[in-house]
Write a structure and sequence with these properties.
- There is one protein chain.
- The chain has about 190 residues and is of the alpha+beta class.
- It has six helices and seven strands; from the N terminus they run ααβαββαββαββα.
- It has a single domain, classed as Chorismate lyase-like (Chorismate lyase).
- A hairpin with a 2-residue loop joins strand 6 and strand 7.
- The longest helix has 11 residues.
């Protein structure tokens, strides 16, 4: 795109490759349900759905979800809040070729967590996690700033993504960890 500086992320299979501090790395490497961990780390967990619509996928997303090039996908974006504070920005894409039997609950999630359905469905297969540091100019950071209603320029964010498969359908979830997630670690320790 001329006139716009879009920076792609470099995705790694190891969380250590993105230079996250230990507390952030601990969140990035969460193997079980992130939703379950967020719920356990706060008194009130909530999903705020920002939108769910048809949109073009990014260059970074096409290959991992089996598309030969940028195409239109079903896109869902949410903020995950703990005790009223946004801690994770979630971005999910599903190819338009996916059927209702591939992802039966996707269109009806509303304000429910996608993670709560993915981790408890025995037909869902989770691929490997990939990790990145998102820098200024990355397409998702403009969305994070809009969702938070604040300027995020000059801030690097850590993210992870994963492709899930159910039947023949693929779905990719990218989670951008917001700075406030670190406070949950401290709060959880203080509760003990």
């Amino acid at each position: 795109m001329r006139g716009q500086s879009l920076r792609l992320a470099k995705w790694h299979r190891q969380a250590g490759a993105v230079g996250a501090e230990p507390a952030m790395r601990d969140w990035l490497e969460t193997k079980a349900s992130l939703t379950a961990r967020l719920m356990a780390s706060s008194d009130a967990f909530r999903v705020r759905r920002l939108h769910q619509k048809v949109a073009p996928c990014s260059l970074e997303e096409a290959g991992p979800i089996g598309l030969p090039r940028r195409e239109r996908v079903w896109e869902r974006e949410v903020l995950l809040l703990c005790d009223g504070v946004p801690v994770v920005f979630g971005h999910t894409v599903v190819p338009m070729s996916a059927t209702a039997s591939d992802w039966p609950l996707f269109s009806a999630l509303g304000e429910r967590s996608l993670g709560s359905t993915l981790f408890y469905d025995p037909k869902v297969r989770r691929g490997p996690l990939e990790f990145a540091r998102l820098r200024e100019g990355h397409p998702l950071l403009a969305r994070v700033g809009a969702a938070l209603g604040t300027d995020v320029s000059g801030i690097n964010f850590h993210a992870r993504r994963c492709v899930y498969r159910r039947h023949q359908g693929l779905l990719m979830v990218t989670e951008v960890f917001l700075p406030a997630v670190i406070n949950l670690t401290a709060a959880a320790i203080n509760k003990r």
